[in-house]
Write a structure and sequence with these properties.
The complex is a heterodimer of chains A (352) and B (149).
Chain A lengths: L1 H14 L4 E14 L7 E17 L2 E11 L5 E15 L2 E9 L5 H4 L28 E13 L2 E10 L20 E9 L7 E12 L16 E12 L4 E14 L5 E13 L4 E11 L16 E11 L4 E11 L8 E11 L1
Chain B lengths: L2 H21 L6 E6 L6 E2 L1 H8 L5 E2 L2 E2 L1 E4 L5 H11 L3 H14 L6 E2 L3 H10 L3 E6 L10 E6 L2
Parallel strand pairs in B: 2-8, 5-6, 5-7
Antiparallel strand pairs in B: 1-7, 1-8, 3-4
Classes of the chains: A mainly beta (352), B alpha/beta (149).
Chain lengths: 352, 149
């Protein structure tokens, strides 16, 4: 690992003087409780550091984001989060090849790691990464195209993606090869009004994928996932101008089992708002996720995993490279007898 | 010359003068400049905002590249306030985020009017901001872009 790290640091100077390297990450402290001593856990976490590199030559550009991340076993592993080669033809047509964040909703490709750019300390669960409980895929490997077209004073932005899609194992991004021949297709359309509403984004998504059956059930909570078709429909709006931070997303995920035709539908939504006063930005968020009553074998979650959560916190932009955050969250499953789960997160996010 | 013609001439002169004053960036203490190759004579504020935040990816038929100055730079601060309604520090943070997203190339950093002009002159598609005084004696390869409403 040390040798690899050293090689990565050397690559920019060897490859091109124009390559720029950045380092991003965060160190955190967490506490969770349901009100009793037995239900209380607390930890410090220094589990993520990212090497970010960009370079450009004419209409071509390169971007990579390599994340060194510690998982539940407390061992660091390396994950290439983004590996993008892009070609800009015109404002109305850009191609991106490689591994990229899925252009779905606002969060997925607006905040892909780089905690310093994220207002809250944690993302809403529905837009978390695929290996952290997110409902939708957050990375895809394939071809992305986008463009922006003027319509009078307004603009329409489109994104179309063809990728390997999701693997039978929910956590896996198919970076090397596709387990099946079917490809995922994602389409996002956004309306960007001009004039007084300049800065507002309103958009919608449709995503389709065909996913193979999984052989094993990860924790035997639900049966192993059968082969299925995944449809994701979403809508979002965001406004981040003049000190305001407003983001809302809603998503419906339909898993259609091949053969039986059984449909399992999961819903998620959140709204997040804040306002910057000099270096301080207080914020609040409400989120709601509903899994199907009978459970979804692909997610390995059922109605008891559904929840409503309210978060509030504050971000301090300490300097150009450091942001301090403190966030409190209360969440509860909508089932009788469930307890409220309280969480407190402190974070130092950095980007150099 | 009849009184009617005199009035028409005065109105036309005032209209022209007012139009130039309102759209000429020199009057604001800063000027948006660009590499002269293929550059338009003017841009709407919304177009300038789009170029400086990666929403618009091309300028003058090539990939857009912006030159930025420090957050304490008075000229750049005036530009950020006038065009974006935010501080230079906030604008630079926005640009940093768009670069991280892959929406725009990493900007060129400049510490003076001369450095901005040198960067803009060297690469087609490049835009920067200089003081109004510096905009008065630009090389032929650099042109002033008027900023519209």
């Amino acid at each position: 690992m040390k040798r690899l790290f050293a090689m990565l640091l050397l690559v920019p100077s060897l490859a091109s003087a124009d390559t720029e390297l950045g380092v991003y990450g965060d160190v955190d402290g967490h506490a969770h409780t349901q009100g009793s001593r037995d239900s209380t856990t607390d930890s410090f976490s220094a589990a993520s550091v990212e090497l970010f590199a960009v370079a450009r030559q004419g209409r071509w550009s390169f971007l990579s984001e390599i994340n060194f991340e510690a998982d539940d076993t407390n061992e660091f592993s390396m994950d290439v989060e983004r590996l993008e080669v892009a070609y800009v033809h015109a404002d109305w047509l850009r191609f991106v090849f490689g591994r990229f964040p899925v252009a779905m909703g606002w969060y997925s490709d607006a905040i892909n790691h780089g905690a310093i750019f994220q207002l809250p300390a944690t993302r809403a669960v529905m837009v978390s990464f695929e290996d952290e409980g997110g409902l939708a895929p957050s990375h895809s490997v394939g071809v992305h195209t986008d463009g922006r077209l003027a319509v009078a004073d307004d603009h329409i932005r489109y994104d179309v993606e063809l990728g390997n899609g999701r693997a039978a194992d929910l956590d896996t991004v198919q970076s090397n090869h596709d387990e099946n021949r079917a490809k995922s297709l994602n389409v996002r359309l956004r309306y960007e009004p001009g004039g007084a509403l300049d800065g507002l984004l309103v958009g919608a998504n449709v995503y389709f994928d065909s996913i193979d059956a999984d052989d094993v059930s990860p924790d035997d909570k639900l049966p192993a996932s059968p082969a299925l078709h995944e449809w994701i429909y979403g809508a979002h709006a965001a406004y981040l101008e003049h000190g305001f931070h407003f983001v809302t997303e809603t998503m419906m995920v339909r898993h259609v089992e091949l053969g039986s035709g059984i449909v399992r539908t999961t819903y998620g939504t959140f709204v997040e708002a804040g306002h910057t006063f000099d270096k301080l930005t207080p914020f609040a968020r409400y989120e709601r996720v509903r899994y199907p009553a009978a459970g979804d074998p692909y997610y390995q979650r059922d109605a008891a995993d559904s929840f409503d959560a309210v978060s509030a916190g504050i971000r301090h932009a300490t300097n150009d490279n450091i942001a301090l955050k403190l966030q409190a969250t209360a969440s509860k499953a909508p089932v009788p007898g469930s307890s409220v789960d309280y969480a407190l997160t402190g974070q130092i996010a950095f980007g150099f | 010359m009849t009184p009617t013609r005199i009035v028409i001439a005065l109105v036309a002169a005032c209209t022209l003068a007012c139009g130039l004053a309102s759209s000429d960036a020199h009057a604001d203490g800063y000027a948006l400049v660009a590499n002269a190759s293929g550059a338009p004579g003017s841009l709407a504020k919304s177009d300038v905002r789009a170029l400086y935040t990666g929403k618009a990816k091309t300028f003058a038929n090539t990939v857009a590249l912006v030159v930025v100055r420090g957050d304490a730079d008075a000229t750049f601060g005036q530009f950020a306030d006038d065009v974006f309604g935010i501080s230079a520090k906030t604008l630079l943070a926005k640009i940093k985020q768009e670069v991280f997203k892959g929406e725009m190339p990493k900007p060129v950093k400049a510490a003076s009017d001369d450095e901005v002009i040198e960067a803009v002159a060297g690469t087609p598609g490049t835009l920067g901001v200089v003081s109004a005084a510096a905009a008065g004696h630009l090389p032929k390869t650099v042109t002033v872009i008027r900023i519209g409403g």
